[in-house]
Amino acid sequence: MATPDLLPGTLDLLILRVIARESMHGYGIAQRLKALSNDVLQVGESSLYPALQRLLLNGYADAEWGPSENNRKARFYTITKAGKKQLAAERAEFDQLIHAIQQVLQNA
Amino acid sequence: MFAWFRRLRARIRYRSFDADLRQEIDAHRAMTEAELRSRGVAPGEARTASTRAMGNVTLAREEARAVWLAPWLESVWQDVKYGVRALLRTPAYTITTLATMVIGVFLNTAAFTFFNTLILRPWPVDHADELAVLSLHAGTAPQRFTLDHYSAIRTQTTALQSVAAIRMQWVNPRTSPGAESYGTSAELATANYFDVLGVPLTLGRFIRADENRDGAYERVAVISHRLWQRLFAGDPEVLGKPLYFGANAFIVVGVARSGWNGPVPFNTDVWLPLQADREISRSSVFSEEAAGCCISIVGRRAPGARHARVESELTAIVRQNASGQTRDWRLRSNGTALVSQPGTISVVAPILMLASAAIVILLTGANIAHLQVARMRSRRREVQTRLALGAGRWRVARQIVTESLIVATAAGALTLVALFNVTGLFVRLSEVDLPEVWKPDLAIFGYCLLISAVMAIVFGLAPALRSTRMSLVQSSGATPAGRLRFSTLLLTTQIALSTGLLTGAALFTRALHYAATAGVGYTIDDLSVISFSASSAWAATTTRQARSQAIQDTLAAARLPQAIVSDTLPFGVALNTDIRKFGAPPRERSGVNVTAMTANGFAVLGVAFVDGHPYADRLDAAEAVVNERLARRMWPGERAVGQRIVESDTTYTIVGVVQDVHFVRRDAIYPTLFLPSGTMSTQPGVMVRGGHGVTEQVRSLLTSLDPAARITTRTMAEQIALRLGDERDGAKGAWAGGLLALLLAAFGVFGVFTHVVEDRRREIGIRLAMGARRDQVLRALFRSTRSPVLGGLGLGLLVSLSMGPLAQQFLYGLSPFDPVTFAIVAAILTCTGLVATYVPARRALRVDPAVILKQDT
After folding, report:
1. Does the N-terminal or the C-terminal CB of chain B have fewer CB atoms within 10 Å?
2. B764/B829 same-domain check
3. B638 in any annotated domain
4. Does B3 touch chain A (CB under 8 A)?
């Protein structure tokens, strides 16, 4: 199944939103994105992990090793304070952008 | 900023960072597999499917890693590539900077090598950190250990697991009685010495305990790897061969590990039983008078025993075992590196070293900074363009510093190559004997690279930042005058310094030449020295007196009154003995130098008598002559003639006093006792005045006496020159230092002048366009470096002239104001200055004025 192209930067935003609720490991995040989007967003590892690394690099998330639900060693990502701020800012920006795009599509 | 730190941390902890990533992606795959299986896919199938679902795992990891590392690395790589290209475009700049840096780093590293080897490094033996070098002090005054101290310490210590006694002696071993001797130092040691140190042997064994018994010892010797190579050409059959000390043969029983040449200054080549001191030393440690003094003691600490414990235990042992005034005696236990032995080195040496290293760095750095500034001026347009296109200032500066770093890395590498090869080459060419420990090690490697990197960053950063400063007016202005005034000052200092060094070197070389040809106190022009080693056949059947007499008789029969038979050749091995006034107790004896030659020697050489007359040429006459210096020392204010002295159980009457002349060294006149030929236990030789023909005649006469003898002929000048070997090495070193300093100064002139020319390109262009002749412009340019060159030269010569009298004592009578020396140095410096200015000037003049004027900045 083809996954629609995400707007640049959107994946980071979606991940931040997912881990804002609770700490999660990479696999969990992918599953959650898939479930929440009714299987539309299937994030491949080659974009998921760079995105996670970007979050770490910018200090929006922290990572820690811990046991997963079926007792496997997994790396859990937690949103940081800076991450929450970024999430809020980007969300506002994104809403504005989507609104603008819809305006153009409907009224042109 | 934080991101930068996190990035740096990821770079530094790269391994764990990469492992985390790998593990994480692997966990992801495992979870996918588990999910597939829970959906009922067969295990094997699930694994394949999960792997397929993951796609290219390596790529995923690469991309995740790229977030952190690649942009960083790639931009550096880009800088390096661009830097190399930029450097190749300007070979003149690159080569000059590289050469300047190599010289600077080389001098600095050489200084550090010296410091490291002599002072910082422990002895090159196994577990050197466990060794304890003991020293004895009464209050603050150093005391010497005696044999009693040693035996008390050896029997009572628990803090040391083993302890050895050593005595150092200068010896002249030879492989056969007639062979050329080889002067070196020997350690006479107890049998456990190498065990205590942990030095393995290349061949054979060390001295055994039963070969070093009290009063009874075996004549055995252990030699260094170096001596093995030099005297025995590395002969694998060396064990069992004899090594002669004087007339006695010691049997070689072992060869030490390569690299072990005893403690600082690493020039020991022979190890002998301590008991052999009885025959090796003129004043043996076992003699009645020496009372067991003096020896050195070294031990290996027991496991867990610190130096403090060794000190307290041994101090108690020494105090309790010695009588009388030992209450304030303290024993100290130190490591083997000189730096850990307080009092063995003065603080001045390291400070001088650091200061000279700092000066070299400063001068090199200043020269590099000049070159860099000049380079940046010529690249103004490029830098401005890059800045205008939107490159950050820091980014452009980083690019420029990267270029300096590339040069520095190359310079560091070249210096290392130089250290490993050129040092060896220099040693081979100059025939200086450097011990094997002088080889560069890892510490030196690190130091060398560190120094070059620091130079590159410090002296590359300032010009880089300066040239990338965004300013609208910057491009039009020339360098502020203040900057150049500072450069002029630095240049003047450099030129003055190299002038001073070169003057010293030139003066010293001229003095050595002078020393070997004149000023000994008698004419040496037609004087020759013939050394004579009797064959073992003749030596076995005659006494030395008989041999001396035979030679005298032969020469007399041949009517050669201008030939002197002498037991000691001038400027050869010095013979010393102890004498005392007749009737004085033995402890009042004092050391003097001995010259034993036939009585005609005084007249033939031209040594004038101040008082009295020559001795009779018979041993039973027991007459002696002294020089003024000895007369003054023994009988101040009295007449020496008629006095009696005792030398090794013979009483001599002084019959004459002669003027002081040089017989042993060119830089000193020792108190000397003259005795008839045949009194000393050495091979007789002949001194003869007259040309080559006479020398050859004497030679053939000697050959007829003993056809198998070893006979060597030298002119007196050659004989003196041989003796000046160390001084020659010193002069070579002075030249090397002076020429390096000159080269640095030349690069300095070159750098500053390139800078000046770059600054004035526009002016040069205008002048040329207006019709100025090139030579006129050239003269105008020369004017700008004239003052530092001439000023530095003048200052250097002035300093040399004023320091001259201080150097007088090393000049063997040559005037410190020797005009030839000063003319040579002035010529060298002026030529260097002209060349260093001409090269950049010519480049500026070659450019078409139209091109220069079209450049708008």
Report:
1. N
2. yes
3. yes
4. yes
Flag whether residue B6 sits within 8 Å of chain A, measured between CB atoms: yes
pLDDT of B613 reads 92
- Domain tally, chain A: 1
Q: Are A40 and A3 in contact (CB under 8 A)?
A: yes
Burial tier of A1 (Cβ tally within 10 Å: 0-12, 13-18, 19+): exposed
For residue B227, what are the domain limits?
128-336
Residues 38-57 of A with CB under 8 A from B: 44-47, 49-50, 52-54, 56-57
Residue B282 located in a structural domain: yes
Interchain contact, A45 vs B28, CB within 8 Å: yes
CA atoms within 13 A on the CB side of B234: 3
pLDDT digits (tens, 9 = 90+) for B123-143: 777 787 888 888 887 777 777
Mean local confidence (pLDDT), B431-458:
67
In angstroms, the first-to-last Cα distance of chain B is 36
Residue B293 sits in the same domain as residue B161: yes
* B302 shares a domain with B373: no
Please give the structure tokens belonging to residue B242: 């004899």
This model of the complex carries an ipTM of 0.84
Q: Does residue B721 lie within any of the structural domains? A: no
Assess whether B540 and B597 both reside in one domain.
yes
Based on the domain organization, do B392 and B480 belong to the same domain? Answer: yes
Pair of tokens at residue B263: 């403690």
Reply yes or no on whether the pLDDT at B653 is more than 90. Answer: yes
The answer to whether B441 faces chain A, any CB pair under 8 Å, is no
Containing structural domain, residue A16: 10-107
Whether the pTM exceeds 0.90: the reply is no
Contacts (Cβ under 8 Å, ≥6 apart) of B589:
B578, B579, B580
Query: Is B187 in a helix, a strand, or coil?
Result: strand
Picking from B27, B32, B60, the nearest residue to A46 by CB comes out as B60
**Of the segments A29-33, B389-393, B499-503, which one has the largest average pLDDT value?**
A29-33
Does B68 lie at the interface with A, CB-CB under 8 angstroms? yes
Would an 8 Å CB–CB cutoff place A34 in contact with chain B?
Answer: no
Candidates A26, A57, A74; nearest CB to B3: A57
Q: Across the interface, which of B20, B27, B63 has its CB nearest the CB of A50?
A: B63
Which residues in chain A touch residue B32, judged by CB atoms under 8 angstroms apart?
27
